[in-house]
Design brief:
By secondary structure, the protein is α/β, with parallel strands linked by helices. About 40% of the residues lie in helices and about 15% in strands. The protein folds into two domains: about 240 residues, 3-Layer(aba) Sandwich (Aspartate Aminotransferase, domain 2); about 90 residues, Aspartate Aminotransferase, domain 1, CATH 3.90.1150. A seven-stranded mixed beta sheet has the order 2-8-7-6-5-3-4, with helices on both faces. Bound molecules: pyridoxal-5'-phosphate.
Length: about 350
């Protein structure tokens, strides 16, 4: 099976498993797991923040961050319509934090300063919710793996500053953006009060994510981690996989990006496929065909797994699919559409 469903499909390598098996461990919940503590220090430094907390998933990073920023009195948050918390976190922003969610529109899962400014509330008007939080994905996911330029981010942060908004960066695949842009993770996360990275996507670790921010915010995040059941015990076992990933699996993301480019260029050659390869910046390839569901089923028959998204097909490259696998996938699409 050539699994292009998502980069979440990666399996820990033998070397990563060995690092996990040999991890020093303690009681994470009491702050005495040395491997988790080392990971949190590494991620805080990587993202240019004071502190970080290890969590079971990226979704919990988003949910805790939203809870840290949103006050349960009609506070409104702004993010793209295709953003993960809008589509894939069971409405947790509303349930856990009582957030009003105002989705924004824009190209490839991004939006500009004007789109944000247009939604800002009048703080003096008692009828309106209060503008409180803006969140972006870097790179976008359902938007197609697009990388926000620093200029685009700054434009949004300027509006955020003008209206006193809190700021959050969903960096599930931030290291893909780092590799694609050549700018550091800290540079991407600069100006955001909270930011996080996921280890279970293209980095190839089985579990975990780290949320970073000021020491004060992360101390507060610990209370929600405990409340939501995200505090763990000998979590060094999984944190060791994450530390291994940060050492060995970051630079190689460039291969995934090259494979995504190759895939997009190949797809563009196939009759019946609509895609602009220039929009592929990281490891996510989204394209149009007449009948995406039918193509999906035919690809499964041919040993290729993909995902469907609003009537479109999404393929994600990662460390468990090599160039030969991409060639096989292209041949399968060609054959399925013939
Ligand atoms: C995968 C993803 C998440 C959620 O991460 P999990 O670890 O799967 O919970 C959040 N945001 C984005 C952009 C993602 O791609």
């Amino acid at each position: 099976m050539i699994n292009l469903y998502s980069d979440t499909q990666t399996r820990p390598s033998a070397a990563m498993r060995e690092a996990m098996a040999n991890a020093e461990v303690g009681d994470e919940q009491r702050g005495t797991d040395p491997t988790v503590n080392a990971l949190c220090e590494e991620v805080a430094e990587l993202l240019g923040k004071e502190a970080a907390v290890f969590l079971p998933s990226g979704s919990m990073c988003n949910q805790i961050a939203v809870r840290l920023h949103i006050r349960p009195l009609g506070d409104e948050m702004y993010l793209h319509r295709l953003a993960h918390p809008v589509n894939a976190e069971v409405g947790g922003a509303a349930t856990i934090s009582g957030a009003m969610v105002m989705p924004l529109e824009g190209e490839g899962g991004t939006f500009d300063g004007e789109a944000l400014r247009a939604r800002m509330r009048d703080p003096a008007d008692r009828h309106e919710p209060r503008s409180r939080l803006v969140a972006i994905e870097q790179p976008t996911n359902l938007g197609g793996g697009r990388v926000w330029s620093r200029a685009q981010i700054d434009e949004v942060l300027v509006v955020a500053g003008e209206f006193g908004l809190r700021t959050h960066l969903d960096g599930a695949r931030l290291l893909n953006a780092v590799v694609a842009s050549g700018e550091s993770a800290a540079a991407h996360a600069a100006g955001f009060e909270t930011a996080w990275i996921d280890f279970s996507k293209g980095l190839g670790a089985p579990v975990g994510a780290c949320l970073a921010g000021s020491a004060e915010l992360i101390e507060e995040a610990w209370r929600y981690k405990q409340m939501l059941g995200g505090s763990m015990r000998q979590a060094g076992i999984v944190a060791a996989g994450a530390r291994f990933a940060l050492r060995h699996n970051v630079e190689r993301l460039a291969e995934d990006h090259a494979n995504a480019q190759f895939l997009a260029a190949g797809l563009a050659e196939i009759d019946g496929v609509e895609i602009d390869p220039a929009t592929v910046e990281t490891n996510i390839v989204i394209f149009d065909v007449d009948d995406a569901a039918a193509l999906h089923d035919k690809l499964v028959e041919r040993g290729v797994e993909t995902s469907l998204l609003e009537g479109r097909v999404r393929m994600v490259t990662h460390l468990d699919v090599d160039r030969a696998g991409i060639e096989t996938a292209l041949a399968a699409v060609n054959d399925a559409l013939a």
